[in-house]
Amino acid sequence: MANQAVGGSHRAAPVHTDPEDVSVQTALSAVADPVRMTLIRELAGSADWTRSCGSFDVPVGKAALSHHFSVLRGAGLVEQRDEGPKRVNRLRREEFEARFPGLLDLVLRGDTAD
Fold first, then answer.
1. Rounded percentage of the chain residues whose pLDDT exceeds 70
2. Which CATH class is domain 19-108?
3. Contact, 89 vs 14, CB < 8 A?
4. If you write DSSP's letter for every residue of 71-82 in order, what string do you get?
């Protein structure tokens, strides 16, 4: 019952993918979505483990936000842990950069081809 949340409901610990196990297609797909780009950029500007999932200003509901974080975890970009009732996040900048040199910098620069 270590993952028991407030109110008695159970929440499974998040599963994280090692960036070394991520294909370039998965990485590109993860960073191509505008909502996920916003999450990545906001995490890059925050100290590790200071941003809870609900603290991001994105135009999606809770279920969609959960999906976006799942995609980011699956691409090796984000690590999450539970702290009491909150799930907090960190950008796995160094690990992802080692696997895909320069890709995260391109995302964080925010260049558009419009």
1. 87
2. mainly alpha
3. no
4. HHHHTTSEEEEE
